[in-house]
Automatic annotation (TrEMBL):
Annotated region (Disordered), positions in chain: 1-44
Organism: Actinacidiphila acididurans
Family assignment from sequence similarity: Belongs to the Rieske iron-sulfur protein family.
Protein keywords: 2Fe-2S, Cell membrane, Disulfide bond, Electron transport, Iron, Iron-sulfur, Membrane, Metal-binding, Oxidoreductase, Respiratory chain, Transmembrane, Transmembrane helix, Transport
Membrane topology field: Multi-pass membrane protein
A Pfam family the protein falls into: Rieske
Subcellular location: Cell membrane
Segments forming domain Rieske: 267-336
Name used for this protein in its record: Cytochrome bc1 complex Rieske iron-sulfur subunit
Length: 353
């Protein structure tokens, strides 16, 4: 009897058809049912204007910080020399200019970004909205709906009535672009200062770039092309690349009767003429010489110059002849420069006459 009674007690507690007498089978819930949106929770700023004003001041402060960051960026650009290095833990010795520019620009951009995020999270409307999927193309009704949403969103953002945020945002956005404008000045020295003058001056001996020996008139054969550089320039120099890029020359010896330009003949020596090796298009080094035509060709964009006629451009995109270097012979019998180039070397620029 006790075992039978025990069995009946257990069977009454089982669900379904083995459950208690007279009970209905259990119903399983739909696991894919739409749970809907949870009740909207209002933020402190939605119900307390003092909290809203506090958030507004935070946003305005971040935008003001961005403006200060931009001003500091410009100040650092002016104050720090490009060669100044400082020790910053844990980075070690870094460029003071680069470090300060990166730090101040980060503050300027971060101020705008964090301020905008804080504005959106604390003051703009955060009500949950359900929007059914629609086709990719928009009809007139959808366009009007989007327009109304834009108007509503602009109104709920408080952009129109929160003048403090609006004014500081305008200031931050207006100042940040100044950083990129100032950076343009750091692309390099002004063309007037860097291209108008080179290492060539009166009395500088022409050195053969291959042998590093002074060039004498008898070393230059008719029809030959020799590359040269000014005396005193060495590959060990820290600014060698900068200087050779402006001072590199090509020396050609022509028959005097083949020279058509009178000034070219006067600036040469016994048919030896010297021109800048730097193309006046984009600054590529010229190295291709046609002995029979006296033409030199730039390998980059095929600008062609006639060395028998003042190195004028006869083909290609170059806009100016190659500058000529006036030469003579010193007491030792070496070829020397009698001054700098006849015009600024390299590509044309806005200050070039």
């Amino acid at each position: 009897m006790s075992e039978s009674g025990s069995h009946n007690d257990v069977s009454e507690n089982l669900p379904g058809e083995h459950g208690a007498r007279g009970s209905e089978p259990a119903v399983k819930s739909d696991p894919f049912a739409n749970p809907g949106l949870p009740p909207h929770e209002y933020r402190r700023q939605d119900i307390d204007e003092r909290s809203a004003k506090h958030s507004e001041r935070i946003v305005a402060g971040l935008y003001t910080l961005s403006m200060l960051g931009t001003i500091a960026f410009i100040a650092c650009f002016v104050i720090f020399d490009i060669d100044k290095y400082v020790y910053i833990f844990p980075f070690g010795h870094v460029s003071a200019l680069n470090f300060s520019l990166g730090l101040t620009l980060s503050v300027a951009l971060l101020g705008i970004g964090v301020g905008s995020v804080h504005w959106a999270r604390t003051l703009m409307s955060d009500e949950e909205i359900v929007d059914e999927r629609h086709r990719a193309d928009a009809d007139d009704e959808l366009r009007e709906n989007i327009r109304q949403q834009w108007i509503t969103g602009a109104k709920e953002s408080g952009f129109g009535r929160r003048r403090l945020i609006r004014s500081t945002l305008y200031g931050a956005l207006a100042l940040v672009p100044l950083s990129s404008i100032v950076i343009l000045r750091d692309l390099g020295p002004l063309p007037r200062n860097s291209l108008a003058h080179t290492l060539w001056s009166k009395g500088k001996v022409l050195i053969n770039s291959n042998t590093n020996m002074p060039l004498r008139p008898e070393d230059v054969a008719v029809g030959s092309l020799t590359f040269g550089q000014p005396q005193g320039l060495s590959e060990a120099d820290e600014d060698f690349q900068d200087q050779i890029a402006k001072s590199a020359v090509m020396i050609v010896r022509l028959k005097p009767e083949d020279i058509q330009d009178k000034r070219e003949a006067d600036w040469g020596h016994e048919g030896i003429v010297v021109f800048s090796k730097i193309c006046t298009h984009v600054g590529c080094p010229i190295s291709l010489y046609e002995q029979q035509t006296h033409h030199v060709l730039c390998p980059c964009h095929q600008s062609t110059f006639d060395l028998s006629d003042g190195a004028r451009v006869i083909f290609g995109p170059a806009g100016h002849p190659l500058p000529q270097l006036r030469i003579g012979v010193n007491a030792d019998g070496n070829l020397v420069a009698l001054g700098d180039f006849s015009s600024p070397v390299g590509p044309a620029y806005w200050e070039r006459p």
